[in-house]
Amino acid sequence: MTENRIVIIGAGFAGRSIASEIKLKGVPGKVVAFIDDDSQKIGKTLEGIPVYGPINDIKKIIKKAPAEEALIAIPGASRKRLKEIYSVLKTAKFVKIRILPGISQIVDGDAHLIQTREIYAQDLLGRDPVLIPLKKSLTYLRGKRVLITGAGGSIGSELSRQLLFGGAQRLYLFGHGENSIYEVERDLRILQEEGVGEKAIIVPIIGELKDRNYMHFILNRLRADVIFHCAAYKHVPMLEANPIEAVKNNVFGTLNLLDSANTAGTSRFVFISTDKAVDPISIYGASKLIAEKLVLSNNQGKMESIVVRFGNVLGSRGSIVPLFRKQILKGGPVTITHPESTRFFMTIPEAASLVLKAGGVGKGNNLYILEMGEPLLIKELAEQMIRFYGYEPEKEIALKYIGLRPGEKISEKLCSSYETPQETEFPGIKRLLRNGEQKEPIECIVNSLRPVCYFDPLKPEVYRNRKVLKAIIKRYIPTLEIPDNEPEY
């Protein structure tokens, strides 16, 4: 069996750390060269490994140092430069291309082999992310007990990984799916074994936000100091077909968590929201808007309640990036709802870093939005992904327009007409000033929805009636769209 020969793109601190780790741990494979653009390094030997360059000459270089695998270890590289490097590596016909993602904890500290992974299309898409000095941002969590709901999801699991650097005493991983919680717990333990982050105690918890008694019981036992509430039902067309469960989970689940946190003495509550809560037409967006209002109106005890709102994240489960990948790999077509459809996008690590930052600097009862840059045309995203996988759009992989699905918009906004973005001193984070919005107390909305979601013997006729549910919400949120043929059940 021949030994896997590896070249590391980038002879900086990160690349050298990984090369040393490969040699020290006897990892299958041998680093045969660094490739770098720095003329001060080219021609030298680092860690006993020769440095060649520049990177754009890699086709010539691999004749001197043949290799099957390339590992990109330039965490600070721009999206544009990463695209150029990837293109050069593909031209050089490397069998395997890995990347050390440009996430903030790598900028702050050691780089580890365990943090490398196969390069994804989303690593090359969108704008350059805002880099957050993570260790400094997380000082407010040192020695604290931190609960992440929806810890098995895309944002929740990334928050959990980044929280390893915060010095938290305990990380409570809360979710209702045993498989996803098992996977994130396993990932965190492997990271800790490999020397990534600090030695927080990791506690997996399976439970339901919708179970009010359980939530009070478990939060009184956990005594979490800080809560990041990421859990939600979020698939727009799916929730249009299941509106009552959307409200039970996203509205009443949030209310149960809020009330339990107030009783248990939690000091900070950070709620993850979405751009679909802005002038929502869907049940998902409406449920998140109601939940936002619940969090912002919370004034019980001393708990500071904060909302952080942002758009789509690249590569999240159930999002279009994994869908496009599957469609491309099976030969197409790639399905797009509308030729003019756009969305805001940011990477999962960037979103998580900014949420953690906002959670520390945000003031209670305030709503913050993350800077998402310009919205991206979905058609262009699809074309970029098709090219990433080595095909030509329309010629080799077809694009197919299927029309907007129930609850979907052509484009989204990050703030409503009654919300004014205000700069903060923190890059990537804006505060929204709210004025002129619906003044009806949030309790009225919740009380009206309760007998539809939970059986009330005094109002049995409205129980599970989705037509009634949507009519109630539309009174408070006029933008909600209700189909003419909306069934009762």
What structural class do helix, strand and pairing data support?
A: alpha/beta
User: What's the overall geometry?
Assistant: globular
Main β sheet profile: 9 strands, mixed
Q: Give the termini separation.
A: 62 Å
Low-confidence stretches: none
Give the key terms.
single chain; 489 residues; alpha/beta; Rossmann fold; 2 domains; 9-stranded mixed β-sheet; 16 helices; globular
Structure in words:
- The protein is of the alpha/beta class.
- The chain folds into two domains: 5-119, 3-Layer(aba) Sandwich (Rossmann fold), CATH 3.40.50.720; 134-313 and 345-371 and 411-434, 3-Layer(aba) Sandwich (Rossmann fold).
- It is built from 16 helices and 22 strands.
- It has helices at 13-25, 58-64, 79-91, 104-108, 134-137, 154-163, 178-193, 212-222, 236-241, 243-264, 283-296, 320-329, 348-361, 378-388, 442-453, 466-476, and strands at residues 5-9, 30-35, 45-46, 49-52, 69-72, 96-99, 117-118, 145-149, 170-175, 201-206, 226-229, 268-274, 304-310, 312-314, 334-336, 342-343, 345-347, 366-370, 376-377, 399-401, 419-423, 429-434.
- The strands form five sheets. A nine-stranded mixed beta sheet has the order 10-9-8-11-12-13-18-22-21, sandwiched between helices. Strands 3-4-2-1-5-6-7 form a seven-stranded mixed beta sheet, with helices on both faces.
- Helix 3 links the parallel strand 5 and strand 6.
- Helix 6 packs across helix 13, helix 10 (243-264) runs parallel beside helix 11 and helix 10 packs across helix 15.
- The protein is globular, with a radius of gyration of 24 Å.
- The mean pLDDT is 93.
